[in-house]
Write a structure and sequence with these properties.
Layout lengths: L6 E4 L12 H9 L2 E4 L2 H10 L5 E4 L5 H13 L4 E4 L12 H9 L3 E4 L5 H9 L6 E6 L4 H11 L5 E6 L4 H11 L5 E6 L7 E6 H9 L9 E5 L7 H14 L4 H12 L3 H12 L1
Parallel strand pairs: 1-4, 1-5, 2-3, 2-4, 6-7
Antiparallel strand pairs: 7-10, 8-9, 8-10
């Protein structure tokens, strides 16, 4: 695909099932002269399966800057390039973002193709009712850093989506249970689209024992989804704090303003409540 206006094509590849690729993605892979791959050894047989004869260049997290310059060089020569990772969509908890940024900065087109993404596939089967979700990706491997991140996420009103490797799974689930309420729902989506695909939902406090009950449940690549933090009744807290402040002798305006700052309850509603309590 040597063109007057060459482009970098961001091409999602299957998570596991080889049928989960679009015809457009196959057409692009067959037509471009170059494919930038996270792992050329992994991608080579996949590309052969789809009849792609492009030459491969490595583009992984340790060489992404250098790979970007190679890609820009091919684009400057009029040769389009496809960017792929081992599975799923490039630059989503995978290499690719810096490469895409450098290509854009060099003035070349970046054309994204829709396709497989483990987070979205897991969400579709999780059955969580939240209207919004936050995709975090991989948590830090070190326990202290992981706990600090989780504390920052604990009270967010969104479903939380994480990726995790099998050798860290049990520790990560234990960390989730230690920081979050044990009654929150945890969905473990394992080996999505593959032979041993499993989607299991349980209370977060029960997940550790469920995993330990069968070693096979700890194998494979995981998406972990946690339901949103329970809503806090700010109004009830606000009224309680307001009564204490008024009892201590603060004026209506002072008490309502301070109760709002402490609890987050509505300032106007607190002011009206303070007037009623004073009356």
């Amino acid at each position: 695909m040597t063109e007057e206006f060459p482009a970098l094509y961001v091409v999602p590849t299957p998570l596991g099932h080889l049928g989960d690729i679009s015809q457009r993605a196959i057409d692009v892979l067959r037509q471009v002269p170059w494919v930038a791959a996270e792992d050329t050894r992994h991608s080579a047989p996949l590309l052969r399966h789809y009849g792609c004869n492009a030459r491969l260049l490595a583009a992984h997290q340790h060489n992404e800057e250098g790979a970007a310059q190679q890609v820009i060089g091919h684009l400057a020569a009029g040769e389009s390039v496809a960017l792929v990772v081992d599975a799923g969509t490039p630059a989503v908890s995978d290499p690719g973002a810096r490469l895409v940024s450098r290509v854009r900065a060099a003035g070349y087109r970046v054309i994204p193709l829709p396709g497989p993404c483990a987070a979205v596939v897991a969400l579709s089967a999780a059955g969580l009712s939240e209207a919004h979700f936050l995709f975090y990706g991989f948590l830090p491997a070190k326990a202290g850093q992981r706990a600090e991140v989780l504390r920052g996420l604990a009270n967010l009103p969104y479903a939380l989506v994480f990726y995790e490797a099998p050798h860290r799974l049990v520790d990560t689930v234990a960390a989730l249970a230690a920081v979050f309420q044990p009654t929150r729902t945890l969905v473990l989506a394992r080996e999505l689209t593959k032979l041993f695909e499993t989607v299991h939902s349980c209370a977060l406090g029960d997940a550790h024992d469920w995993l330990l009950a069968d070693a096979n449940r700890q194998r494979g690549e995981f998406v972990l989804l946690v339901s949103a933090a329970p809503a806090v009744d700010n109004d009830a807290d606000g009224e309680r704090v307001l009564k204490l402040l008024l009892t201590d002798g603060l004026s209506v305006s002072q008490a309502s303003r301070l109760a709002h700052a402490i609890t987050g309850a509505g300032k106007h509603a607190l002011y009206q409540q303070a007037l009623r309590l004073k009356g």
